[in-house]
Amino acid sequence: MAENNKSLIMVVDDDEMNLKMAEFILKKETDNDVVLADSGYKCIELLQGKTMPDLILLDIQMPRMNGIKTLELIREHEEWNSIPVIFLTATADKETVIKAGMLKANGYIKKPFMPKELVERVNRTLAEKMMDNILG
Fold first, then answer.
1. Which of 128, 68, 63 is nearest to 97 (CA)?
2. Does pTM surpass 0.85?
């Protein structure tokens, strides 16, 4: 959890324009803090450094370590495995959708994303996480 009861959202994408757009929308339209990672490796590095986001927005198609592999590593780690993860994707083939479901992804946002859809999905997922925490 970020300072002042704000949620911390990590955006992971190898495309700098997508990172900047998501950061701009989230900072403008929500009262949350945002941290950016330009690769799956950077995401894992930040998590290992004790950056604990309340939500991760994760691109699927990235070089070297794609979003599926990144999510596998997140789900294998006891401290991180309950972090909600929403995939950002331009394509969602059947195999990827099945694999993401098995890894308990919290949904998809198609790229290019619409600001309204991004904000609604983020707010809904954070509200669900808060309810899960309250209800135990």
1. 68
2. yes
